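Predicting holo structure, beta-D-fructofuranose bound.
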Amino acid sequence: MRKTLLMLTLLLMCTWVSAQTPEVLSRQRALVRVNQNSKYLLIPVQEQGINATVSVLGAENRVIQTFSVRLATDKTDYYVPLELKDAKLLDISVRFPQNDERKLADFSCWKELKFSDTFDTANRETYRPAYHHTPAYGWMNDPNGMYYKDGVYHLSFQWNPYGSMWGNMTWGHSTSRDLIHWEQQPAIIWADGLGSIFSGSAVVDKNNTAGFGAGAVIAFYTSAGGAQMQSMAYSTDGGKTFTKYPGNPVLTLDVADFRDPKVFWNDDINKWNLILAAGQQMRIYSSANLKEWTYESSFGEGYGSHGGVWECPDLVKLPVRGTTQQKWMLVCNINPGGPFGGSATQYFVGQFDGHRFTCESAPEVSKWMDYGKDHYATVTFSNAPDNRVIALAWMSNWQYANQVPTMQFRSANSVPRDLDLFQYNGETYVGVTPSKELLALRGKTVKQPTATCEIVVDVRNNTQLVLSNAKGEKVTMTYDAAKQTFAMDRKQSGAVGFSEAFPFETVAPTNGKLKQLRIFIDHCSIEVLDAEGKMAMTNLVFPSEPYNTLTVKGGKATIYNIEN
Ligand code: FRU
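Done. Tokens:
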């Protein structure tokens, strides 16, 4: 036993060394000298700790990077790794709230700072989804810069590498060959003097229109500093590393909320289009070379829901089922102002001629892509194969995203969904179908649900499904054919008290009769998708143990275990 302990201690000593004591400059400022031989400095974080600003200084004390981190004041919830590279000195400062008499020197973090060549990302969370994309650690919100190239799907994401709450926005990067199994890669776009890196998109420039080379990947993002402006970065190594364009920013406007550029090639005009959010409108631009953009038009005034900021747009051409027609769908994520409070994905269907989008519905019509509370910032992959239009959402809601009960990481993406259009009662709606890659996940059929399973339900006129566990926690789902509604009630689903906005029943119109539902459960999420794509509902749940009982009234359920 003693021998094992000794060996363990030796092993630990080999992998990390304690950081030296900080040089305290004042009650709120300290310097930490960096041990050049280690790859990382592991910083102890306390979720409710105090936000410190860290300036990383390199040769001749030039600032390499500045970020904020919730330093542990009296207990360490988790560590985050700061990659040291050329760092020599860290200048750390905090601004204490009024009447807070604490001293930076008394924080518990100093005893626990360590230099290390490794950072352990093994999962420590019971709620981490198994077949949904999550960041290995840290906070994630919107999916960004999604494209397909040479057999690989690329997914960037709004990432905080220094904590599990929003901040330090950076483009994290993950890759996958099947939209299901993701591997996190080094982050690709980091904050600079123009600001942190907000949401955006990426395209593959097959014909070298921008001059960075045929097949270069070009990313567009919002530089969010004092003002919001649009910048670009290019990659000539297949998306592994990006170089910021020296002419940044490429698009500016005197509007406070001016962000989230989505760029796409438009065959109809043989040019690129860019759509982005500006206040409560979407502005559309065009360009031949991705660098110089011409303003075309704006859409939004008087149309749809305006209960919050318009964000993360998309504009895609989709086939209308059962016809030879194609129409355009303008995606407009909105926060707050969703149908159940907070964030949601709104869309408009109409025509787009490369210059102007015309909505075909009456201005007062609001359409929602998903009728759950946890489906936001939805955008589609660029250059997807076989003319597919594949969407991913961020499975959370700004009402409580920073409070959900996980710590090592916060938030996941939805399962991939293929989009098209269908007509019902004189309106055209988006069809949201589970992507075909999900079928490969089906394992053996089981009698009762597990933490990771797909439930296929053949519904009858009235069907009720109750997922529950021995703790009395449950989720009730009800399909009412007469009313043409589907509802999910998570008021007693488990941990719900972290936000008043969390316990809720969401209700969706079914646009006709439902036949079959596909329900994807993955530890903390339930996504109910109509097999024919006419209805989607995504809700988070945090049961204290997995739901292991399903009772079905008026329908037939088959449960497939998912062993990912
Ligand atoms: C949407 C959003 C975007 C912005 C990003 C910042 O969730 O507010 O508009 O670019 O998050 O992280």
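Residues 467 and 550 are 5 Å apart (CA to CA).
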